[in-house]
Design goal:
The protein has 162 residues and is mainly α. It contains 9 helices and no strands. Helix content is 73%, strand content 0%. The N terminus is likely disordered.
Length: 162
């Protein structure tokens, strides 16, 4: 088994723009000071990188929901954010499974989650620019937004190749 120093491994697993962020983690600082098997380094760095990506993804989701007209003072908007993030990270499209998973994480009933999200959607629809919402969500003139439609379209916008 070969042992490498972290400075030799780090550039291979992290994009250089994220290198300075990785040094803020205690586990990376620990690796800088000693020799560690490359498998362990790779595993730790992948977890760090996934954490950074999730934080960036959460910010992007928040920005899209704010553009749509959601209010973050409502619990349902935060739950919608969690549902979208779960849908992206787990590549899940079944809305019932998403609600069940979020309910387990939050310690609530899935029907409560659904009700809170639908309240946030109704509030957004009531006070937002409907033409703008229709354009972002690719809805027709007579369509109303649904949680599944919003989750799938935000997921679509975030997973577009640049």
């Amino acid at each position: 088994m070969y042992y490498f120093h972290i400075q030799e491994i780090l550039p291979l697993y992290l994009h250089f723009s994220n290198l300075y962020k990785a040094r803020d983690y205690d586990c990376v600082n620990r690796f800088f000071s000693k020799l560690t098997p490359p498998e362990e380094i790779a595993r730790e760095l992948e977890e760090i990188y996934d954490g950074l990506n999730n934080k960036n993804t959460e910010e992007k989701i928040s920005n899209i929901l704010l553009k749509l007209g959601f209010s973050y003072s409502l619990k349902g908007t935060k739950l919608m954010n969690d549902c979208i993030l779960y849908s992206i990270t787990e590549d899940e499209d079944n809305i019932k499974k998403i609600y069940n998973e979020i309910a387990i994480r939050k310690g609530e009933n899935s029907y409560t989650i659904k009700s809170d999200i639908n309240t946030a959607i109704r509030n957004m629809w009531r006070f937002s620019d409907r033409d703008k919402v229709r354009k972002i969500l690719r809805m027709g003139q007579c369509d109303r937004p649904s949680s599944k439609g919003i989750i799938s379209m935000v997921k679509y916008h975030l997973t577009l190749p640049l």
